[in-house]
Amino acid sequence: MTLGCNHALGRSIQVTAGDRELFTYVYNADDPQYESPRPYFHPIRTLTGDLISVYRPWDHLWHKGLAWSLPHFGQDNFWGGPTYAKEDGYQPRDNNGSQDHDRVEALDVSDDEVRFAHHLAWHTQGGKHVVDELRTITTRLTDDGWVLRYETAMTNVSGEDVPIGSPTTAGRPNAGYGGLFWRGPRCFTNGTILSPQGSGRDELMGQRAPWMGFTARQDETDTASTIIVADDTGNVRHPPQWFVRSENFAAVCPAPWFSEELPVPAGSTLALKYAVLVADGLSDDDRANALADQARKALG
């Protein structure tokens, strides 16, 4: 099986394995301002074609498959929807910024790898340019599925020091989301969260780990799927705390600013790297650890 790529110029890339879609990466999003327009991966599929992502679910319209989303970048929201404050909870605050595609840096396609890099300029809702970002995504097949390596280098060009935080750092307990956020399809609700400490459910929220994941059954097809997200050892605050959910909806998000703000000085660059592995089938603890090894190998 070989990899391929279809490029909708100025809009998106679709990465394929044989004649099947693995994912579409919409790099030039046109979502409403309230949803903080930003690039996203959707649909995301296993090698056999099972869907493992959701787009604009009714309860959180700003959730978009897999996306780099920051709800508290200083006073600005690059996550979408309302912003949390301790004094009045979640409220619309006219602070929904956008991650705007600027130019493609590279698109390299071979039988065993697809690499796409592009430059983005982040703007506040008021139009201020605050971040220059170089984002690189690399796709490869693995022994048990396929893996996406996600790399970001964000340079603070706002002229001010900016703290990156979460609703938890703003005062809401156990809501430390923000970063590379994946949300699964409805049928994954009440599925199993995977971690090095062992599988579980929402009690794993906020745990520190080098990787976490999710496994669940699909509707209609009588099949199952697994996703693993691995944090690079060179990332700040590795191993991070994780925002994970199962009981209300499926979600996995490594969040180095889960419970403590991360200051980004003016002019500095924050570089982070992750691996996202997608496989068919349910995973017990032993298989999850084996898949995590494959994901971490992709980071090397």
From TrEMBL:
Domain of life from the UniProt record: Bacteria
InterPro entries reported in the protein's UniProt record: DUF6807
Name of this protein: PmoA family protein
Organism name: Kribbella hippodromi
